[in-house]
Every structure is written in C-alpha cells, then in structure tokens.
Design brief:
The protein is of the alpha/beta class. Helices cover about 35% and strands about 15% of the residues. The strands form four sheets. Strands 3-2-1-4-5-6-18-19 form an eight-stranded mixed β-sheet.
Length: about 375
C-alpha cells in the first residue's frame, strides 16, 4: 500500500501524523511511505530523517496524495485536500465529526474516513487513544502557560528576604488533561484543588495529593453522572456547583478549566462576575476554549486581561506547543490503529471490529456518522481539543 503524510495546513498546527519511528515500521511491513517535504519541520523532524527511515519525499501535497491508498493526518481534511485524494482512499485523522462541513464531500470521493475522536474508551483502544495522548500534553502545557502569565512563584519559598506563599491552583474538570494539570502543578509546588461532576474522580484527585471540591449530589445525579464521560447537568446542580466553586475560584491564583461534554458546547463554569471577584494577577487557562470555553470571558485563540487584572488565556491547540512529543505519541496511536487493518499481507477493513466500526464516518460513498446505532459512536466527544 502507498501511505501519504501531507504537511498540516491549519495555522498553528505544528504536529505531524507520522514520525521516522512509525515510517520505519510501515516500510518494514512492505509499504511505501510518501512524506510531503517539510511536513515534520515544526515537530523537529527534518526531511532527511524521514528519508533515512525509508520514506520518499514529495515536493507538493498533490504529489503526496495523488496515488496514496492511505493518508495519515492530524487535522480534518479541507475541501481542496479532499479533491486531491485518490478516489476510495482511506484517511485516518482527527475529523471533528460533529461539526465537519465536508462529510458529504468525503463520501462523494468514496473515502473511508476514520475519526480518531470517536474511538471507544476501552482497554483494547487505550494505545490508540489520541484524545488521551494529546489531552495529557494539553494538561501539562496549560500549567506551564499559567506560570508564564502568573506574576508570582508557584512553590513556597523561604528566602532571606522573606517567605513567598505557594500559588493556589484550581483545576475544573478532571479527565485526562485535568489529572495531568494536577500532577504538573503539584510538581511545581502549588497547592492544588480540583472539581469534577463525576464523583469517581475524587479518589484520583486525592491520590495525586490534591483536595477534591465536592458538589453535593442526589443519588440520582450521582448515578447519572458517573460514566466515562460527563453528561449535561440540571440547572439546580449548576446552581449548587456555581455557589461552591465561586468561593474557591475567588481564592485561587490560577484556574485551569478542562470541562467538556461530548458533542456539546463546553459547560460554562466561570461567570464574568466570578472573574470580577478574582484577585489581580490571577490567571485562567481555558483548555476548553476551542469548544466554546468554560469561562464566560474566554476568547478562543486570544489572551486578554480584565479591568481587575485577571489574565484569561484562550490559547487553543496546546498539544501543538509541545509538537515533537505530541507528534511522537499521536503517530504511535495512529500506527497501532492502522495495524487493525494493515499487515504485511495487505489491507482488510473488518467492520465487525468495534473500534473500526465506531470511528468510520464515511465509507463506500455514504456518510456513516450519525447513522449508526452504536452507543460508542453516539456518545463520543466533539471537541477538536487535541
Ligand atoms: P473530557 O475531555 O470529555 O472532559 C474533561 C472533564 O470535564 C471530564 O472529567 C468531565 O467529567 C468534566 N466535566 C464535564 N462537565 C463538567 C462540569 N459541568 N463541571 C465539572 N466538570 C465537568 O474527559 P476525558 O479526559 O476524555 O476523560 C473522560 C474519562 O475517560 C476519564 O474518566 C478518563 O479516565 C477516561 N478514559 C478512559 C480511557 C480508556 O479506558 N481507554 C482512555 C482515556 C480516558
């Protein structure tokens, strides 16, 4: 099979879908890999490293794509890219399926398009889970971003000139990104609190040495919210949560928000009023910015400072700020996923495989996303947080 790796076009997208390590493995399986020249530049992979791993280099995207049977990407293909794919090609990428305007065009081109966001959260899928690998990076990078804007130290310091107080960090949403944000902030010496709508996260938060802020819940609410993914909560729960969280938010120096609900706009957890009550110099890093933001004042892609001196950071695509490692992990996820279809003996798309069935959004000239009754396909995240 011929496998193409085009360069990513989206502004700020520094990642690449294959690395010399994964190219080498694909070539060793007997496949041909074509990399668009410059595709790895922003991930610290020069063309020469791909060539050394056995790839050929294509001077343009069209040259890379025109005869490729399989295309590996990070961002969903745009209309002009889709036009350049070979009819019937297989494409594996983040696809933003809930808001992708090109599904019909991909189906018309008979692409077998796989949306990596739709991978079920099962044990077998763990090594292919791009949301986990990329959100882990986002959580880490969010804390470093906070230290950049926060005008004080993170750890407690005892100096000859006096004692410096540790920063108080509040993490809202304790999925993969939130857990890594807790761990990173703790490593830097901050005092960390965290909250999540899923009660099962309490133990995880406490095992990392942080304090869990628990919103009182009825038994019914507990049962409804304790799945792998969060559900949208009732207005009454939101009011109780807001009351409790407001107190902690106003006492925090740094807030990192990561709360997402699959397929929906991110829930608003911090109102403009709460931001107005925060201390000058405080920082909010809204990892959910790309999905609409958890803070009312977040502007996706921008950093703003309020009149009362709070910095609200809506920087999107945090994994791309750690591009080399983000690409390494993403590329390994994709290689493992490809091995469900690709072997030394060729290519087989087995729709009985639950991981392939849940992620395949267009196939054989039809749009499958939204048409299947598979619970895993219906209950997965929308956000292109990665
Ligand atoms: P996510 O990105 O969908 O959401 C981030 C967090 O925000 C979640 O913990 C969610 O509960 C929380 N949240 C949503 N609404 C909220 C609200 N109103 N207030 C407070 N918090 C709110 O989550 P994720 O990182 O994808 O992780 C989801 C779960 O999946 C986690 O339990 C994770 O450990 C699990 N997971 C399992 C596997 C696997 O088994 N293969 C792989 C990865 C993750």
């Amino acid at each position: 099979m011929q496998i193409a790796i085009p360069a990513e076009r989206l502004a700020g997208e520094a990642r690449v879908a294959a690395t010399p390590e994964t190219v080498k493995k694909l070539v060793a399986m007997g496949h041909t890999v074509v990399v668009e020249s410059g595709a790895g530049r922003l991930s610290a992979v020069p063309d020469a490293a791909y060539a050394e791993a056995g790839a050929s280099l294509a001077a343009s995207r069209a040259a890379a794509l025109s005869s490729a049977d399989i295309v590996l990407k990070v961002r969903p293909p745009e209309a002009d890219e889709i036009a350049e794919f070979k009819t019937g090609a297989t494409v594996v990428s983040l696809m933003n399926p809930y808001a992708n305007p090109h599904l019909a065009a991909m189906a018309a081109k008979k692409l077998s398009a796989f949306a990596m966001e739709l991978l079920p959260r099962t044990t077998r899928a763990q090594s292919m889970d791009v949301l986990s690998s990329q959100n882990n990076i986002a959580g880490y990078r969010a804390v470093l971003l906070a230290t950049h804007y926060y005008p004080r130290f993170m750890p407690m310091l005892m100096t000859a000139a006096g004692t410096v107080k540790p920063a108080r960090v509040l993490i809202m949403g304790v999925g993969v990104a939130g857990l890594q944000a807790i761990a990173t902030a703790k490593r830097l010496g901050a005092v960390v609190e965290a909250t999540d709508v899923r009660p099962s996260t309490k133990e995880q938060v406490e095992s990392l040495g942080a304090k869990f802020i628990e919103v009182p819940m009825t038994d019914e609410e507990k049962a409804a919210s304790d799945g792998v993914y969060a559900k949208e909560m009732s207005d009454d729960y939101k009011r109780r949560q807001a009351e409790l969280v407001t107190k902690h938010a106003m006492a925090a120096d740094i807030i990192i928000t990561t709360a997402l609900i699959p397929g929906k706009k991110a829930p608003q957890l911090i109102s403009a009023e709460v931001v107005r009550g925060m201390k000058p110099g405080s920082v909010i890093i809204d990892i959910a910015a790309e999905a609409g933001g958890n803070c009312a004042l977040t502007v996706p892609g921008e950093v703003s400072v309020t009149d009362n001196g709070v910095t609200v950071v809506g920087t999107t695509n945090l994994p791309a700020l750690v591009a080399a490692d983000a690409s390494n992990l993403y590329a390994r996820n994709l290689l493992t996923f490809l091995s469900l279809m690709l072997s030394k003996d060729g290519f087989t798309l087995n729709l009985e495989d639950d991981l392939l069935a849940a992620t395949l959004i267009t196939h054989d000239g039809a749009v499958r996303f939204g048409q299947t009754s598979s619970p895993s396909a219906a209950a997965q995240p929308a956000a292109t947080r990665a």
